[in-house]
Fold these 2 entries.
Entry 1:
Amino acid sequence: MICNWQWTIYLEVFVLVRAVVTRVSSASVEIDGIVTGEIGKGFLILLGIKNGDTEGEAVRLATKICNLRVFGDADGKMNLDLKAAGGSILVISQFTLYADCKSRRPGFTEAARPDTAVPLYEIFIEECKKAGHMVQTGEFGAMMDVASVNDGPVTIIFDTENL
């Protein structure tokens, strides 16, 4: 007897809250020539919120980043988290992290609209503050000039589906 089994697997990928985290010696953000946020050693976090994201993902991502051990210990090994290193956080909203680049002009339909994204952005910031970190921010939706001095460089991309 010959059995012919054909398996078709449909995998729908849901990439949720996305963050690009860079370890910095310093970072700042200006809006209309005015510095609105500035840190010394710490993390510059570019945060993107996607359609369908939830509060749970924002909380989980904040927890993961706040506990990330990428600062050097006495032996120069990446063993210290942000708190142990005495670092701060600068969070910048970045809807362009969800750019669809299939054509030469990117589309941003996957990025959450402000009515969804702003509350999740604020939840992420509050979770970082609850973890005991000094947090500075840009302004959601504003044109910003962001400057940073990368340390390492160490840059890590987080998608909550991979946490």
Note: The first helix runs from residue 55 to 66.
Entry 2:
Amino acid sequence: MTDSSFSQSASAQLPRMIKDPKEIAKRFAQGALFTAVDTETTGLRPEQERLLEIGAVQFDCTGVQRTFSVLINPGKQIPAVITSITGITDELVSSCAPASEVLPPFLQFIASSIIIGHNIQFDAAFLCAELRRAGLAPLTNRTADTVLLSRAAYPQLSSHRLQSLASALAIPVYEAHRAADDARVCMELFLLCLQKLNLAPHSQTQQQLLL
């Protein structure tokens, strides 16, 4: 899920973002580890709402390394509008672990990788809010936003929403608005943007990276 509605205080505590496409591409070509992350939540405000799901795909210039996917018990009723968008129900998460138990293995998974997301500030704000509630240290990973990359690579497109971009760029979508599939789509978008900007490693194609 992506949205820009989070407070100024939450924004001030977010990890630093790498905005320059050339710097992002340089780190990618040099072998830096990236993790595409997506979250589903019970609403739009990190201070009031909770995480429902985290999905992540970790990759570098040699291809996908591993994946992470977990449902989370938010400790509150899921609004009907969220269930209608994501398909995640109260019953589906009733026996799942809370965020305080899910976050430590997620932090181990991402390690020091660069986190990318589509409107990454939304996902990072929710992750940081849940980390604070759990008494855990805040995220320190550098981040990059595929919204900014897509606008640089495809300025002619009228919509830069993730699903709109997937449709326009023929990225397959198997389960829209679920964190694991959205994270994969985000990774594929990232690779396409680097190629479109002529910043991708010349030795490999997007298809080879996805194998």
Note: The chain has one domain: 8-204.
